[in-house]
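Weekly sync, protein design subgroup
Attendees: M.S., D.O., the rotation student, P.L. (late)

Item 1: inverse folding check
M.S. brought a backbone from last month's batch and wanted to see whether the design step gives back something sensible before we order anything. D.O. pointed out we never logged the input encoding, so this time it goes straight into the notes. Structure tokens as presented (67 positions):
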């Protein structure tokens, strides 16, 4: 799961990894659940806007390659 801030297309999180220098942003995911959330602690007016959650299907296992 990837969380993106739409106003500037900034990738905020990928899985549980955070890619923004602001520690208020964090992906939340409960074990054995398909539910994800984006947490913004101490939200400010400048945080308002659209946030997009993108879900990519799992990659298929690699095909074995023999030489």
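Designed sequence read out in the meeting:
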């Amino acid at each position: 799961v990837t969380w993106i801030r739409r106003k500037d297309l900034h990738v905020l999180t990928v899985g549980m990894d955070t890619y923004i220098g602001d520690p208020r942003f964090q992906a939340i995911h409960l074990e054995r659940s398909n539910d994800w959330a984006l947490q913004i602690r101490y939200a400010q007016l400048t945080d308002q806007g659209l946030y997009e959650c993108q879900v990519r299907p799992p990659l298929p296992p690699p095909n074995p390659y023999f030489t």
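Discussion: The chain has one domain: 2-54. The two ends are 36 Å apart (CA to CA).
Action: P.L. to compare against the previous round before Friday.
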